[in-house]
Amino acid sequence: MTARRSWTPGALAGLVLGLVGSPAGAEIIYVDADAVGPAHDGASWCTAFTDLQEGLRAAAESGGAITEVRVANGVYRPDSGSGDRTASFQLLSGVSIRGGYAGCGARDPNWRDYQRFETVLSGDLNGDDSGIDCAVGSDCCVPHLGAGCDDDVCAQRICALGGSYAWCCEPGPPWGDPGWSANCARIARLVCCDFGENRCDNSYHVVTAEAVDAGAVLEGFTVSRGFANDVRRFPAPYIDARGAAILLRNAAPTILDCRLTQNAAETAAAAYLEDSVGATFAYCEFTGNYARATSVLSTDDSLLLLDGCWLHGNDALLETVRVDGSPVGSYGGTFRDCTLGPNLERDGIASSGYADIRLETCELSDYIVGAAVRTGTNDRLTVEDSVFARNSVGVRLDFTSATLRGSRFVRNGFGLFVSFAAAEVTDSVFVHGNGGWAQLFTADSYLRLERVTVALNQSLSWIAGLYVRDSTADVRSSILWGNTSSIQGEISEIDVNRGTLNIDYSIVEGWTGALGGVGNSGDDPLFVDPDGPDDIPGNEDDDFRLRAGSPGINAGDPDYAPEPGDVDLDGHPRRLCGRVDLGAYEFGIGDFDCDGSVGPSDLADWAGCCNGPGKKSVASGCEAFDFNADTDVDLADFAGFV
């Protein structure tokens, strides 16, 4: 039996048991630290190899005959007792390494449950990590005023690194002594490893993959206690300061259902990718990882997929994930069904430039200092069906281009900050923000808003909705309502400072006509319940759909023609009854006869539209009956009438 674990929030409780099979004719090697023997040839659970390195060696020498290595619960260290910090478990093309088995002595040794039978790949070679935070016994690991720290040996190690670290021990630039900064304190946890956590003897990299393809699979392991602390400055190789849990070089392995935790590095404590196009991490949890710069994962000239992953409780100075591209290649990362936050870094996903970054159905929350997503020069960002909540900035764009569709920005300081960039936002909401400036801020940029709701944001300045400075903004079929600032009225919703605003077919509270355009009004859009039944703003029950009788119904751009894939924030087609509605939600679901209400008269044609379940498309003209937006009309949709 097997229990498949997804580390995505909410999925941990749903372990699914079933049988694990292997390809016909495949040979399996068994590894079990508790195998009783007396022989240990890897042929069965109780004659299993007790050292994972033996199993990997047998697979590597089999000429492709061995395609799977099964590993029972226990702790496995890559050095085989030698104490060699450079030793690691190396992934192999065409070989799946699978953990989480019950192993020898169990009624069913092939019973697989990643949590019950935790299989740990550990970089704690001596098994003596203390778990004691070095900040407990020394101020070297704590930022403070004044140069140096209370351990002179530690301080001198850090200052000997040179560069900006020299400022940790002596007066710095002309503007004064920066003191023992956060940068000094963070590097102390790596350089001064002989006190506190006692990690000096841990592996640089617990797992490595070099020149392997997607057939190299690691599944069902906890990878922990890697310690990539070789922070010697250039021209040192520097690779042993990255990728403490997993290091990928020119590799595209598949990492499934793994938990990467308690790893530490100068940067990218959980995983570092170099020249690795096609690497995949699916259903993995990244938690409790620590670094000076990037806590979890960093790429260099690589192409990455994170699918169904949960990144939380990590700690670094800069960002959780760094995705760097190149002007001469197509590099970047796709994040699908991932959750980032809460973490302690400044930013969530960041780039220094030239990267293709794509987010699909992700949630990024609680980045209270920086941005959930921060782009670099010439990045190309696409965001679809994602949520940004309680961040200082939801998305920050600098010198780049971005497309944002079908997303929710809730309780952020800035929802979207656009500087020297171009952004197109459609079918999205920016609501219940609370910051010192506008929810949408654009400077020296181009911004297009179409079918967007910007509502009930608060600001300490004079503008809470959209601010256009030295920029061009095109706004169409949108709603700006209830945004409050130090000055009430139209200027609280939209302010243009040395820029150009083109606004048509939209609702703006306090509308005076001074901003020009056609088809605009200041009429109340009649949201269903913007604070939700609990009367607490910013929760999932907030409802910014339009009520029957709303002036936003059928009031959008008359020339708008939906393209394939154009849907509202619920996933329903746009333009159900005549013209498109204003804002992020289309009203006409259930209103088959388009009379502005949903009632018994709409049921007359139900039978003619019912075609489900499991169909791939709704019959033309029947879109109003697809309540749950699953591309068919069946009894599940009928519940929407009740």
Segments where pLDDT lies below 50 for 5+ residues? 1-25
Q: End-to-end distance, in Å?
A: 42 Å
Our count of helices gives 6
Helix- and strand-based class? mainly beta
Average of the residue pLDDT scores? 89
Q: How many E strands?
A: 50
Q: What value does the Rg take, in angstroms?
A: 28 Å
Shape estimate: globular
Largest sheet: 27 strands, parallel
Q: How large is the share of residues in beta strands?
A: 25-35%
Helix content: under 10%
Task: Provide an overview of this structure.
With 642 residues, the chain is mainly β. The chain is built from six helices and 50 strands. The strands form six sheets. The chain has a 27-stranded parallel beta sheet that branches. It is globular. The protein starts with a strand and ends with a helix. The relative contact order is 0.05. The model is unreliable at 1-25 (pLDDT under 50).
Give a quick rundown of the structure.
With 642 residues, the protein is mainly beta.
Q: What topology emerges from the helices and strands here?
A:
Layout: E1 2-4, E2 16-18, E3 27-31, H1 52-60, E4 66-72, E5 74-76, E6 89-90, E7 96-101, E8 112-113, E9 119-122, H2 152-159, H3 182-191, E10 207-210, E11 217-219, E12 222-224, E13 227-228, E14 246-249, E15 254-256, E16 259-261, E17 264-265, E18 271-274, E19 277-282, E20 285-287, E21 290-291, E22 294-300, E23 303-307, E24 310-312, E25 319-324, E26 332-336, E27 339-340, E28 347-350, E29 356-360, E30 363-365, E31 371-374, E32 380-384, E33 387-389, E34 393-398, E35 401-405, E36 408-410, E37 414-419, E38 422-431, E39 434-435, E40 440-443, E41 446-455, E42 458-459, E43 466-469, E44 472-476, E45 479-481, H4 490-493, E46 494-497, E47 500-504, E48 507-508, E49 527-529, E50 543-546, H5 606-609, H6 635-638
Helix pairs in contact: 2-3
